[in-house]
Amino acid sequence: MQCSGTRSFMPLVLAILVLSMGRTNLTLITPQSDGTARAFGPLGLVQNLWRHRELIGQFTRREVEGRYRGSFLGVFWSLARPLFLLVVYTLVFGVIFRSTWPQGRGGVGEFALIAFCGLAAFGLFGECVGRAPALVTSVPSFVKKVVFPLEILPVAAFGAALFHTLVSLALLLVAQLALVGSIPWTAVLLPVVMLPAVFVCLGAMWLLASIGVFVRDLEQAIGLGVQLLFFLTPIVYPIEIVPEQLRPLLLLNPIAPVVENTRRVLLWGQMPDVAALAAWIVATALFMLLGYAWFMRTRRAFSDVL
């Protein structure tokens, strides 16, 4: 079930972001070192990423391979942490506290599927945001190279995080098929319901990667924030048990609707709320553009700080 008040909250978020865009010049043109010009708007973003698609692919592959280079188990480590957390949370919340969802029939196996689905969806956001503040500061040599497109660093890191999330979701579908015997047809809607997570992650990574250059304590603060958002996300508990007066807190969590909709389409065969999902996609897309514009406007000062 979707958060209470989500429908009324989405238009508010959308209005705020539209007003913010009205005050932010997202279509400014900045001369580049190669004599071209780059717009900060949607078209400029798409053109820029498309122009550097091969470099993004190379850096993404390097991110994935570098993490497991020299390790004996290789890509298995991308599953080790969520599987370990799944065992712990299933034992604590599924066995000891006996958390159940209204959509389910109860049981430890069902709780494990529901919890793992939430962990996989939140893991994409947690990994991206957790790494963002150090993306630029960790490669000062790239900052000194005027022709290097620093804006691709968050995109490559997002690609690596997305790879790990897809591995987890593939394991989830296998477990769903083994325990339930079928996968609902609504699973084909997964890319659509995950779009807000994609936009939020990219926007937050561009924003935090830029701020992290100037505020070095940001990485520690973000780690605490991610932990707080984890417990504000209905991953190991159903949203129905949250008191009505506290549910607005969940609306501050941009990943909570993604977790809820991912469960709907992958586990329960339910359609997401189309109107709320569409509003959330538009709002998060605007946030992504704002993050990209901020990064492109502030990148000139990176070399002075580093």
Which helices and strands appear, and what pairs or packs with what?
Elements: H1 6-23, E1 29-31, E2 37-39, H2 42-51, H3 53-68, H4 77-96, H5 108-131, H6 140-144, H7 152-179, H8 190-214, H9 218-231, H10 247-250, H11 256-268, H12 274-298, H13 302-305
Antiparallel strand pairs: 1-2
Helix pairs in contact: 1-12, 3-7, 4-5, 5-7, 5-8, 5-9, 5-11, 8-11, 8-12
Tally of individual domains:
1
Oligomer: single chain
- Largest sheet, order of strands side by side? 1-2
Q: Characterize the largest beta sheet: strand count, sense, and whether it forms a barrel.
A: 2 strands, antiparallel
Radius of gyration: 20 Å
Query: Helix coverage percent of residues?
Result: 55-70%
Overall outline: globular
Give structural notes.
This protein has 306 residues and is mainly α. The chain has one domain (6-17, 39-305). It has helices at 6-23, 42-51, 53-68, 77-96, 108-131, 140-144, 152-179, 190-214, 218-231, 247-250, 256-268, 274-298, 302-305; strands spanning 29-31, 37-39. A two-stranded antiparallel ribbon has the order 1-2. The longest helix is centred in the middle third of the chain and has 28 residues, at 152-179.
